[in-house]
Amino acid sequence: MDPNIENESNYNPSKYRTPDGAPSDIVIFTITSTEKSTAKKALPIRELQVLLIQRKKWPFEGQWALPGGFCRETESMYECAQRELREEAGVTDVHMEYFNVYSKPGRDPRGWILSHAFFALVHEQWLLKRRADDDAADVRLVPVEEALRMELAFDHREILTDALSKVREKMLTTTIAREFLPEEFTISELYQVIQTVVPDFEERNFIRKITSTQSRKGIIEEAKDRHGEPKLSNRYSQRAAQLYRFTDFSPQLSIYS
Amino acid sequence: MDPNIENESNYNPSKYRTPDGAPSDIVIFTITSTEKSTAKKALPIRELQVLLIQRKKWPFEGQWALPGGFCRETESMYECAQRELREEAGVTDVHMEYFNVYSKPGRDPRGWILSHAFFALVHEQWLLKRRADDDAADVRLVPVEEALRMELAFDHREILTDALSKVREKMLTTTIAREFLPEEFTISELYQVIQTVVPDFEERNFIRKITSTQSRKGIIEEAKDRHGEPKLSNRYSQRAAQLYRFTDFSPQLSIYS
DNA sequence: GGAATAGTGTCTGTAAGACATTATCGT
DNA sequence: ACGATAATGTCTTACAGACACTATTCC
């Protein structure tokens, strides 16, 4: 047999240098709500936070980093990220998306390591449970603006920056806002969530745009009780507000039409 | 020293199973133009094509596949893809974007191999040069619809499907149409390019929308000669058409405003 | 004149954007 | 009554969508 012809019997991956590891790292976002100090009913103060863990081992021992871990041969990258999410944040079944690979030579002192970055959007309540469980001084929710100013391990600040800009983009072009909201919510809540993620967002006639314009009507629909009567909520206000829910519809955007 | 404490001196990556390779695979799209058979001036027939190579080695020997190759320790994934683009298609300096990783266990018979998928958008002319160079029976431009029906190596049909849907989305939400057009182009050319990539696209008042609506005006601008006179082209028509060029502006889309 | 592409006129209904106003109801 | 949030009225200008029409020039 011609030794130059490669086939199953003589294929040998180890003649090439191979990566030393392919972890996934996860940017876990949540929105915290705190009641306004005034006793009266009022909209809560919301803040976008990111979950960080303090490293216990070399490299970057003691520094804060994104949760993550090495992928195994028996799982896909997405499954790996799901496992890490469960192990490190104690949550399952949340919205998670892959967004980039980080592969710059030298990015990890342990060797040739390709990080696969995901972002996850989690309800505050799921994380709160976990944080009570282990009295973890090594797991923290940090406001994103603060996290961006911290000196994070590896290239995790770059990853966080990219994740944030991806989430902001998706917040405006898809219905991921639903991931931070209960099944049924008021228009103000939705507006607040969008503004929490995208501070520049401002839309004075928000309620009309989303409820009565032809092209957008259908993104959300009024919640009704079993008698078909509109469901209202006065959680945040004296005057009860209509509750809405997201539908499965999301418009296809285009700069040309 | 506590042997349970990992640090630079005792860190040993080889105690874990590591990937057998991290290639990049590239979906190279181009749009071919063929003159209509009628002798008269007319818009060409355009078709979206993808570059495939025929594999010479195990596995999938003889089958068609996306161009690609293994990443080296000294380069980033993007640099790897650039190198492959140069080596396999003979092109440099084209628009290329990373879009996904393919990591399902068993996807590659050679072992645990993570494919990093890019798409590239190339002018037909750059590829034509190359295809003449090597009388390559092993490199082919294939119409996308045909390629999707072929039995490609590995999970390359899935990769191609994903690339196509990504490019279609970006064709409508960004100005990547420019990658398939000369510096200066007519409105019909632009419209044709969009339709070639996104067959469903239809916009009866296209010219007015893109030239005279407040929110979109600024995506393209009229080309002018050095005397400030509008530049025209009669390449495709009896009546000369205004030439346009893309600006750096691309509107921020949102489903909420 | 016909064929092919380029581009405008015109009309109707709907939406955008800006602000003022009213509604509800616990405290 | 006031404060806070919810929601509607009103007005102007702009855009969407449809379709008929004119313009240019080679054949």
Structural description of this entry:
- Chains A, B: It comes from Paenibacillus cremeus.
- Chains A, B: InterPro entries: NUDIX_hydrolase-like_dom_sf, NUDIX_hydrolase_CS, NUDIX_hydrolase_dom, WH-like_DNA-bd_sf, WHD_NrtR.
- Chains A, B: This is NUDIX hydrolase.
- The first copy, chain A, is elongated and about 70 Å long.
- Chain A has helices at residues 77-89, 124-133, 144-149, 156-173, 187-197, 206-212; strands at 23-34, 45-54, 64-65, 68-70, 95-102, 115-122, 139-143, 185-186, 220-222, 232-233, 241-246.
- The first copy, chain A, has 2 domains: 23-173, Nucleoside Triphosphate Pyrophosphohydrolase (Alpha-Beta Complex), CATH 3.90.79; 176-246.
- By secondary structure, chain A is α+β, with helices and mostly antiparallel strands.
- The N and C termini of chain A lie far apart (61 Å).
- Chain A contains 6 helices and 11 strands.
